[in-house]
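Troubleshooting: if your tokenizer reports a length mismatch, compare against these two reference records.
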Amino acid sequence: MQIDTPYLMFLGDVPDHLAAKTAYGIADWRPDWCVGQLRLPGCAADLDIPDLTLAEAVERGCRTMVIGVVNAGGVLPDHWVAEIVAALEAGLDVASGLHVRLGSVPAIAAAAKARGRRLHDVRHTTESFATGKGTKRPGLRLLTVGTDCSVGKKYTVLALERGMRARGLDAEFRATGQTGVFISGRGAAIDAVVADFISGAVEWISPAADPNHWDLIEGQGSLFHPSFAGVSLGLLHGAQPDAFVVCHEPTRTTMRGVEHPLPTIAAVIDMTIRLGRLTNPGIRPVGIAVNTQALSEDEARRTLDAIAAEHDLPATDPVRFGVDGLVDRLVAEFPAAGASA
């Protein structure tokens, strides 16, 4: 699908910034596409871009209103419908990463048809996927895995893409979620793929490539999360990663949205290796990415040093401190690919 830019980012009335992580991701990695934001009363998220009315957004050249929110189940709240209809009537297309299809809401479908506007459901694809085969394919692959959902898996692979390319490595981000598809312009939201075809969809996202090419595959959920482990496992088997980076948020005690305790980094490493060996016996960890946003700089550095020492792996906050240590480890572990730099 081709989504016209620039965007007006719709944040609704979400209760925190994590509930608007799609919007934050687009604003962080494609800031030139984000002209302004539209928030409803009570919204606790703020992209630090101008608050615009629909008329102001159109006047400033916006082409598409992006529903930049996520929620459990990917539902569209009823009280947002009027604002979406108003956007269509103002002359904007509307794009959404929610599970609910925009066109399934009669008022939205009618407004889009009446105004000749387009509706984009990024979470849904028209592609038909095969079941995964688990056959080793050429090329190198890195997958981010997590101790929880919403811990920085997408940001880590995007930062790695930038850092690896700066070192001359052949590396490309592969999107597996709706935000990643907005950012990259391609990919598939695998949590909307029928379960039997998840691993096959990931094989399609990351096909056979040059032996020294790195596909950097965006992780989803956590193997330990009772809500999302099924998606995480299918993604792991389809990705067949040669390397993986564990992503972690150190201030959490329970996983997001449930009462289950956060697993340890060591447990995630062990489980990822044991399950990942089904499709790639050579799978190995190459680093730990820690979201230190809630920590001071001194606390963050102490935390990273302790984690690196405990696991004998490089540890960094990719956004705050960069990814040089992770790239160094990749080059050391896969010298042939590094030699192509």
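Reference record two:
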Amino acid sequence: MSSLLPHRLERSLSLWLGVLPFFVFALVFLVLPTLHVVIGAFTRPDGSLTLANLSDLMSGTILSALWLSLRISLWTACLGTIGGLLVAGAVIRGGLPPALRDAVMTFSGVASNFAGVPLAFAFIATLGRLGLVTVLARDWFGINLYATGFNLTSFSGLTMAYLYFQIPLMVLIITPAIDGLRGEWRETAESLGASGVQYWRMVALPVLWPSLLGAFALLFANAFGAVATAMALTGSALSILPIILFAQIRGDVLQDPHLGYAIAFAMIALTGGANVIYIWLRLRAERWQK
């Protein structure tokens, strides 16, 4: 027995050493920076405690940026949830070729992580004033997109760019939940005279509802924290909250990093709350389906 204890201890230590780099990485790049932001949100430059940084969040510029960020996040989360559900439902339960599912899932995995400067450049090259689609629509069909009021650097343009990664992310999130729908549920509904629309409205959607709400919360958090795509695509045309935060932390114009810490603290609270809602609803949906 005594000889087994050192062996088990050595085995346990070797297992923990395997995950030690992960904990070190999380501590250095996640935990410590978050603590630094939280402390900075409640302190002055001289180190004294204050609530003035949080009260400054009520200023007009920051409030307008917050409202704009909330609008973009809510719109893209709503449209992304609906669009992703339709795509996933059509591919998984719509009777389409099985090979199409692999193609859609592969594309969704790539597109959900395609953001920042590359995504902004792709949209500028496609829908910019000299973009491919813009030029083809003008030369082939006589349609001037920008004469109709469309502007890639506007709210609608940024929303379109966000949907490029929001819809694929929704497909990845909701696919396991749709796979969890049992085939006998549809067979029973059809045997009772229910149509396909009635099955989705009265059986499938109520079952998927917690998963849909959780996915909506995750998409909201994903859009609310996005900054690189907005900066590269719109520049200073749209002042969303992450761009204001970047300007405050960089300090080259406004030079108030502690106000930036307060903005970051508010963003952490909002996105953290959304992620907690997503995790809770996902666990509830998984437990119900089991």
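Descriptive notes for reference record two:
- The chain has two domains: 1-41, 57-289.
- The mean pLDDT is 84.
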